[in-house]
């Protein structure tokens, strides 16, 4: 089973009154596994009791919460690592620096190499919709080059939900609008970057 993607025809013209139609692709989020379902599946695959998995799940979550919020990068077994980041307003006068300048806090997830490799080799199923919502084409791609490290050079979210707020980001990404960062990665908004150029920001 491949990754489901939607290509929707949208007006991408930035000038008012003008039209420029193009197909913009975005991930099709078609399902969500609840915690109970994840624990149930983990119990089946490991042979351990659900109570044991549930206890371990809770303990790992508590460790991640405690350490990540103290500024540590915390390993998530089998997945990657989590750390916190923030966006804040920049000021020239050191006397004006205070916690009130922080306008966004978020968690940065950096996947491990195994997950990125699995993602790179997974086929992609694309459903194309015209501007009226009608399906006009379906494409299945097994191209291993359609995902990978090059995606991180331009992490632009064309599917919507980008932000261009001001301020300084210490979480490893730089938003447009004069923000600076400590991670070296550039994006339009706070949605999909990390300090290594491979992570995803999650607000909390």
Automatic annotation (TrEMBL):
Keyword set includes DNA-binding: yes
UniProt-annotated stretches for the region Disordered: 140-204
One family name in Pfam for this protein: HU-HIG
Residue spans of biased composition, Gly residues class: 158-170, 186-198
Residue ranges with Low complexity bias: 171-185
Keywords of the record: DNA-binding
GO MF annotations in UniProt: DNA binding
Residues of the HU domain: 1-124
Source organism superkingdom: Bacteria
Protein name: DNA-binding protein
């Amino acid at each position: 089973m491949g990754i489901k993607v939607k290509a929707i025809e949208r007006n991408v013209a930035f000038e008012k009154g003008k039209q420029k139609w193009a197909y913009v692709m975005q991930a099709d989020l078609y399902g969500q596994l609840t915690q109970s379902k994840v624990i149930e599946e983990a119990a089946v695959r490991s042979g351990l009791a659900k109570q044991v998995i549930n206890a371990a799940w809770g303990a790992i979550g508590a460790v991640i919460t405690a350490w990540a919020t103290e500024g540590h990068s915390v390993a998530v077994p089998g997945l990657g690592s989590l750390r916190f980041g923030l966006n804040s307003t920049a000021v020239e006068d050191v006397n004006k620096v205070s916690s009130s300048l922080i306008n966004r806090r978020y968690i940065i997830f950096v996947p491990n190499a195994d997950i990125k490799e699995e993602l790179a080799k997974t086929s992609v199923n694309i459903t194309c919709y015209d501007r009226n919502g009608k399906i006009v084409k379906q494409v299945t791609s097994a191209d291993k080059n359609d995902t990978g490290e090059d995606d991180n050079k331009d992490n632009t979210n064309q599917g919507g939900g980008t932000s261009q707020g001001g301020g300084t980001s210490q979480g490893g990404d730089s938003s447009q609008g004069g923000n600076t960062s400590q991670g070296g990665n550039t994006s339009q908004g706070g949605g999909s970057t990390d300090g290594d150029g491979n992570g995803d920001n999650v607000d909390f």
